[in-house]
Amino acid sequence: MKDTVVVRVMRYTKHPKYGKYVRTHKKYKAHDAGNTRKIGEEVSIVECRPISKDKRFKVAQSVNI
C-alpha cells in the first residue's frame, strides 16, 4: 500500500426505532503522493478516478483544528 492512507470518516445516524443518534464510521483508502501524512492527522479527501482496486479518493489537504 505504497502512497496510500486509510481515512476513517465518522458520522452520526439516527436509530430508526429509538431515535437515539448513533456514531458510525467508514474507512476509505485514499492516495497520498509521497506519504506526507502522519497517523492521527485530520485530512480532507476528494473523489477521483479509480487508482487501484480499492482507491477511489485522493487526499486534498490537511485540516488544521
Automatic annotation (TrEMBL):
Molecular function as annotated in GO: structural constituent of ribosome
Q: Which domain of life is it from?
A: Bacteria
Alphabetized, the UniProt keywords read: Ribonucleoprotein, Ribosomal protein
Q: Which SUPFAM superfamilies match?
A: Nucleic acid-binding proteins
Keyword Ribonucleoprotein among record annotations? yes
Spell out where the chain crosses the membrane.
none
One Gene Ontology term from the biological process aspect of the record:
translation
Is Ribonucleoprotein a UniProt keyword of this protein?
yes
User: What is one GO cellular-component annotation here?
Assistant: cytosolic small ribosomal subunit
Q: Which family does it belong to?
A: Belongs to the universal ribosomal protein uS17 family.
Q: Which PANTHER family match?
A: 40S RIBOSOMAL PROTEIN S11 FAMILY MEMBER, SMALL RIBOSOMAL SUBUNIT PROTEIN US17M
What is the official name of this protein in its record? 30S ribosomal protein S17
Q: What is the lineage of its organism?
A: Bacteria, Candidatus Tayloriibacteriota
